[in-house]
TrEMBL record:
Protein name, per record: Daunorubicin/doxorubicin resistance ATP-binding protein DrrA
Annotated keywords: ATP-binding, Hydrolase, Nucleotide-binding, Transport
Top-level taxon of the source organism: Bacteria
Any Pfam family: ABC_tran
Catalytic EC class: hydrolase
SMART domains assigned to the protein according to its UniProt record, in alphabetical order: AAA (SM00382)
Database matches in InterPro entries: AAA+_ATPase, ABC_transporter-like_ATP-bd, ABC_transporter-like_CS, ABC_transporter_ATP-binding, P-loop_NTPase
Keyword hit for Nucleotide-binding: yes
Species this chain originates from: Methylophaga muralis
EC number(s) on file: 3.6.3.-
Length: 314
């Protein structure tokens, strides 16, 4: 049975809940739509429900309540069609170590009903610096090389969606660089990439949209730039030429913090608000007679926004 394919969403999660026999509520009424061709970062602390959500979408864990569509196919009713569109790189090295690299790739394409395409497999192996290891037995590869094979295997059947579950945890710098280079190529081809990571700076660098999950509930889903603009705070840091012991009365209308050494004034503001008063603060400081040696601005990182939202949801 086929479900109507939605044009703009490759993944559509509707009212998804999951409760394990132990009584643990892993997911609670999750609704999430992921657009075709985007890089989506799913962030959350340990135990937040990230892996359960990914596992259900990939057909590895049974749906509790609700519905999940991948490319318009229901992951329960149309399991084979839905699963065929997904490539998964799990955290664990789940791979047949007694197989050879090339045979693993060919076999993976066959499992998903794809015709043999040696040129495509060669391209993937070269992109992951595995071409000279294609005839090697996986058990004799290093941990980093095994991780590369896992990524190559997930891409062997040319999936529409690639899940990367903590892909750079514990990997070397070279693999991280190769992988993000490959991710960019996949994006250009239109592949949808869903990433979970503890390295939030990676999400900040490459993701189009950010989703934050905690206690099995989606706290927000937002375009990265809009999220940074909406929730990111800025600081105006003013270095004074001469220390002061108290803030002059001309500045009483602004919430300013005086550094312990009396040599800095700090003003917090939200960038997207028209009443951020930065110009007024600088004008008032000039009127007060305070002489500045330097002016700096500092903006919240995605990690600081993430930590703040998770703290609020406790």
């Amino acid at each position: 049975m086929e479900t109507q394919v939605m044009e703009d969403h490759i993944i559509d999660v509707r009212n998804l809940s999951k409760k394990y026999p132990s009584g643990f509520q892993a997911l609670n009424q999750v609704n999430l739509q992921i657009k075709r061709g985007e890089i989506f970062a799913l962030l959350g602390p340990n135990g937040a429900g990230k892996t359960t959500l990914i596992s259900i979408i990939c057909g590895l864990v049974n749906v509790g309540e609700g519905q999940v569509l991948v490319g318009g196919y229901d992951v329960v009713k149309d399991y084979r069609q839905a699963r065929k569109q997904i490539g998964l790189v799990p955290q664990e090295l789940a791979i047949d170590v007694f197989a050879f690299v090339w045979n693993t790739m060919v076999f993976s394409r066959g499992v998903f009903g794809k015709p043999r395409d040696d040129a495509y497999l060669e391209e993937i192996l070269k992109a992951l610096s595995l071409w000279d290891k294609r005839h090697a037995k996986i058990q004799f590869l290093s941990g980093g090389m095994k991780r590369r094979v896992l990524i190559a295997k997930a891409l062997a059947h040319e999936p529409e969606v690639l899940f990367l579950d903590e892909p750079t945890a514990g990997v070397d710098v070279e693999l991280r660089r190769d992988m993000w280079r490959l991710v960019e190529k996949l994006r250009q081809r239109g592949t949808t990439i869903i990433l979970t990571t503890h390295y939030i700076e990676e999400a900040e660098e490459i993701a189009d949209r950010i989703g934050i999950i905690n206690h099995g509930e989606i706290l927000l889903v937002e375009n990265k730039r809009e999220l940074m603009k909406k929730l990111g705070r800025k600081q105006l840091i003013l270095q004074l030429q001469h220390p002061i012991t108290q803030i002059p009365s001309e500045l009483n209308g602004f919430v300013l913090q005086l550094g312990e050494d009396g040599k800095t004034l700090t003003y917090d503001y939200v960038d997207n608000q028209p009443t951020n008063h930065v110009t007024e603060v600088l004008a008032a400081i000039h009127r007060s007679g305070i002489e500045l040696s330097d002016v700096q601005t500092k903006q919240s990182t995605l990690e600081q926004i993430f930590v703040s939202l998770v703290e609020e949801s406790k």
